[in-house]
Amino acid sequence: MAAQVARHGLIMRKAFCVTNHEAINWFPGHMAKGLDQMQRKLKSVDCVIEVHDARIPISGRNPLFEKRLGISSLKPHILIMNKMDLADRKQSASVKRYYEKEGVSELIFTNCKRPDSPGVKSIVRKLARVIKDSERYNRSEETTYTAMVIGIPNVGKSSLINALRSKHLRKSKATKVGALPGITQSVLERIKVCEDPKVYLLDTPGVLAPRIKDVEMGLKLALAATIKDHLVGEDIIADYLLYRCVMMSSFIYFLSFWLVLLDVFALQVNCFQRSKRGSVGFS
Question: Is this prediction's pTM over 0.90?
Answer without folding.
Answer: no
